[in-house]
Write a structure and sequence with these properties.
Helix content: 55-70%
Distance between the termini: 36 Å
Shape: elongated
Number of strands: 0
Number of domains: 1
Strand content: under 5%
Oligomer: single chain
Radius of gyration: 19 Å
Number of helices: 5
Order of helices and strands: HHHHH
Length: about 110
Amino acid sequence: MKQILTTISTRMDKESLEYIEKLRKMFNIDRSTAIRNILEKGIEEDKKEKALQLYINGKLSLEGAAKFADIYIGEFLELMAENGIELNSTLEEYREGLKNLKKVWN
């Protein structure tokens, strides 16, 4: 399925624009594609960073943070470990997780 793309305009510093031009030439892609690829990768990383912050601050549960970051819970747990963040789940969340696990295995 084709995505509908929206045109936007932005201002960039010279160094960033030079990098985009270098990518464009090296990979034989147009400027819009180069910018879009970089932006998509940046958004993906930003989602993970913000999900970690929201989880640490108690604004999202483990499941909510994983959904916010668009990754599986297991991947989010790995991301937490990579960043030295401990699990701050409540007893109720733990019990809910066990209940869900029993549903999967039965």
